[in-house]
Specification:
With 297 residues, the chain is mainly β. 12% of the residues lie in helices and 34% in strands. The chain folds into two domains: 44-149, no CATH class; 162-296, no CATH class. The strands form four sheets. Strands 5-8-2-3-4-1-9 form a seven-stranded mixed sheet. Strands 10-13-12-11-17-14-18 form a seven-stranded mixed β-barrel. It has a two-stranded antiparallel ribbon with strand order 6-7.
Length: 297
């Protein structure tokens, strides 16, 4: 045997290690990727159509944050905010949810809800911390639409059931659409619109008395404007300010009373004169007129 030769028994044996095809360390990022993919797929699956709404003022509306709601339920989200082509309005693009796609139709209205604080009412209080939100009111049209013109204020219930009346006044003062009509301090109706009366010598205020309370208005009922300050005072008694009148400075208000004597109901479109102040006699009227329960409306 040649010098330096190595026999077969002395040859080193190679150690073969099987390489793992899968490392446990990959489980975490893989699971995260699967979850992210599932969430994205679910989000894409729920995406509905994108619509464009123009508003006179888009202040506070932000993409990816401002929701679109109907009856308190989120049905979409603002995807982009910019100026319209003529730079006169704010252009808000909204991505609706798939389940709410049917809202994008003829007649649907949109408006922005912002917090408003007045002497007599606080509206949009829920948006103080969360910011503005867009409210939707579905229309009755059958044709689908992708472009809408937003309202400056919440819409007035033009098609609600009830008794339509006209109140004629020399000056409506702070009365405006959505101003409440009250009976003994309870809201029983709403102002729908204002327009000039015959010969432009007065203002006609179109109001709706809700169906449930329509029977409260009778022949001989008296209406007056509560949008003012009623101050009473004297040297010995001091000054007394009517709080209800002070409250109505900002919100406007109409109140009415009905005579105690039984009188017939009025027809739709009946015209009443709107007085500046009530007479003491009206405040003493106590008619017994049954009001249907809320479930009977």
């Amino acid at each position: 045997m040649a010098r330096g030769a190595v026999t077969g028994e002395e040859l080193p044996r190679a150690r073969v290690r099987r390489r793992r095809l899968f490392n446990l360390a990959w489980l975490v990022p893989l699971a995260a990727a699967l979850i992210a993919g599932a969430l994205m797929w679910d989000r894409l699956r729920e995406r509905g159509p994108e619509i464009a709404i123009t508003f006179a003022d888009g202040g506070g509306v932000r993409a990816g944050i401002t929701p679109v709601k109907y009856r308190g339920v989120t049905i979409g989200e603002v995807s982009a905010v910019s100026l319209s082509e003529d730079r006169k309005r704010a252009l808000v693009r909204v991505r609706l949810q798939r389940s709410a796609a049917s809202i994008a139709r003829e007649g649907t209205t949109f408006w922005i809800v912002r917090p408003q604080v007045g002497f007599g009412s606080i509206t949009g209080l829920g948006t103080v911390l969360t910011g503005p939100e867009i409210q939707a009111l579905p229309g009755k049209g059958e044709q689908r639409r992708k472009e809408f013109v937003g309202l400056d204020n919440a819409p007035v219930a033009q098609e609600a059931e009830g008794l339509s009346l006209v109140l004629r006044a020399e000056r409506p003062r702070s009365i405006r659409p959505n101003t409440p009509v009250q009976y003994r301090g309870v809201d029983v109706g709403v102002v729908q619109k204002l327009e000039l009366g015959p010969n432009s010598t007065s203002a006609d205020i179109n109001v709706l008395i809700y169906k449930r309370y329509a029977g409260l208005v009778r022949q001989g009922s008296a209406f007056w404007n509560t949008s003012g300050i009623n101050v009473k005072g004297g040297l010995l008694k001091g000054i007394e300010v009517d709080v209800e009148s002070l409250r109505s400075i900002a919100t406007g208000g109409i109140e009415f009373a009905t005579p105690s004597e039984k009188s017939p109901r009025v027809k739709p479109g009946t015209v009443f004169f709107l007085h500046d102040q009530p007479k003491n006699e009206w405040l003493s009227w106590l008619p017994r007129i049954p009001v249907p329960p809320a479930s009977a409306e």
